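PROTEIN ENTRY
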Amino acid sequence: MARVAFLGLGVMGGPMAGHLARAGHTVTVYNRTGSKALAWVAEHGHRAAPTPAEAAEGAEFVMMCVGNDHDVREVAGAAVPVMDAGATLVDHTTASVDVARELAATCAAAGLGFVDAPVSGGQAGAENGQLTVMCGTDDTAVFERITPVIDAYAKQVTLMGSAGAGQTTKMCNQIAIAGMAQGVAEAVNFAQKAGLDIDKLIGAISKGAAGSWYLEHRARTMADGEFDFGFAIEWMRKDLAICLAEAARIGARLPVTGLVDQFYAQLVERGHPRWDTSSLVDLLQHP
C-alpha cells in the first residue's frame, strides 16, 4: 500500500481518490474548494490538506486531476518543490503535450518521476473504477511502479510512449468521439424523421460495423432529448481546442473535428454549456 496525495476532487477526481482509499492506500486530498475535500473525508476518512504542498508532502505518489494547462502548472508548481526524491507525479488532467513535457523536465531535474495519464470513461467510469488510462513517461520503471496504484480505478492502463504520449492518445480519443457523436446524432434524427423505432434501431445496428459505445449508451437519450448528465460540452470544447491546436502544430487535418467543435459552440450560444456531448442532436431536431 502506498502514501498517495490526490489533488483535485471534481466529478472525476473525487471518485478516483475514493477508489484509492477503498483499495487500502493512505490518501491525503486537496481541492481548491476546501468544503469538497472535507466532504470527501467525511465519506471516505483519511485526511484533507489546505494546500497542494501540504497534501504532497511525504507522498510516494501525487495524482492530479484538475481543469486545464493553467491549473496543472499552478498546482504542480506548488506540489513539486516539496515532494520527496524518488516520488512520482501523475497528471490525470486532459492537458496539452507542452505541459506534459514541461512537467517531465521539471520532475527529472528534481529527481522525481512523472507520468502524463489522462483518462477516458467519463463520470460513470470514474465512479465504477472502470477508466481507461493512457500514459506517457520517459522512465518505464516509473510506469511499472504507478500501475498497481492506478489499477484501483482503471480497467486498462497502457504505456503509449515518452512524456506527452498519454496526452496525444487522449487527443485521438476525443477526435474519435467527436465524429461518433455527430454520426450517431444524425442517425438518430434521420431514424426519427423516417418513423423508425429507436430501440429496434439500436438493436439492429449496434452489433454490426456501426456499433459503438456511443450508439449503445447515447442513442436512446438523444432520441428522448435528455442531456442533463455526462461529459459537458464546455469540457469537450476545452479538449477539442487542445486537439485542434496540436493538429495545427504537427500539420494534421481535422476537418470533422473542427466542424463538430463549431456545432458545440452553437449549443453554448444557446445557453447549454453543461449539456452532455450527445446534445449535438438538438441542433438537428431544432435547427
Remarks:
- Strands lie at 3-7, 26-30, 47-48, 61-64, 88-91, 113-116, 119-120, 131-136, 154-161.
- The mean pLDDT is 97.
